[in-house]
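Consider the following assembly input.
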Amino acid sequence: MQNNPSGNDPRTIWQSQPRGISTVTLEKMIRRRAQKLHRKAVWERLGSVAGPMGTVAFSALGIATGYSPVQLVVFAIAVAWSLGGAYVLNRGTWQGRLAEDAAFATGLEFCRREIERGIYFHRRFLLWVFAPIILAVGALVVPQLAIGFRAGGMLANSIPFLTLFALWVIGVFVIRSWKWRTMQREIDELNDIERENRI
Amino acid sequence: MSRSESISSPEANPDNRYKDAADQYGSALERLARAYEADAEKRRDLLQEIHFQLWRSFQRFDARCSIRTWVYRVAHNVAASHVIRERRTFSNLVSLEELERFPDKRASGADNRINLERLSALIQQLKPVDRQIMVSYLEDMDATAIGEITGLAPANVAMRVHRIKNILARRFHEGVDHAE
């Protein structure tokens, strides 16, 4: 590509951009980053247990106020499942630091690994966070619905809650499945690039 | 011994190696961060992350590749990770092939700042691997060097660089006489 006499040459435009971080020394920047990374890790850890802990609290409330043995067993399963989820998610799948061998991986390998980590995390999220929430809410709602069907009036009272809950479930599924498809498509595209690479 | 030879020798102190690399590639890393993040605040964060990971990575540098390849690999990988994690729901990144088909609605301007914004916006639409190639091309790297960073075969890189040239020529050279 020939250099453009009007100064429109993209490489000249790109390389002549002004520097923005000249006043901050690199050592300071690294120290600050290390502190920030530590704080971020703590918050990520807390964030990753928020869903399971919410389910545990909800189920504990259900156990305290529950009346049928089946309901108590289901709540207990939801608690155990959520605690298992908190453990699995905290082993660090998606969140956390960059892979240790980032410098040894080429761009292609690294992108594939990051996307696969994302897929792994989304799969774990549905199994270990979303499913126990559904179970715990189901344990509360299903007996109420059964009573509502018999009593008539109570069913109408629970319609707003059930509608919101159904919308939330649908929303989670739509967003998650969209992300899932996007990541799967990206993996397919990386496969195509690798195939081209071998030809 | 030249400066780049001294910092790439396995015996060099990792901190010194990082400082020399940061001196040498600091501006390029800032430009790279711009290619991956449009928001100024997040861009500063990303740049810090790149420097931090680069500093950490030099503890494991074994001189199997050049310092430049090492620096760009770490930087691109940190930035790609940022793009993959930060992606907004229902937003789509495109490939070079798709970008080649898109018309550019904005007029070509002579103002350098506007052109830089247009160029940055163009790069930020790309998927990480294509973005790595585009940025490396803009940094005047050849197909072999880009191949070492991205893992693509030089012929594959050359084909993609050809596409990049077409895209850039269409968007930045409109109305100006030029020859390939």
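Confidence is low (pLDDT under 50) at residues 175-180 of chain B. Ask yourself how this observation constrains the way the partners meet.
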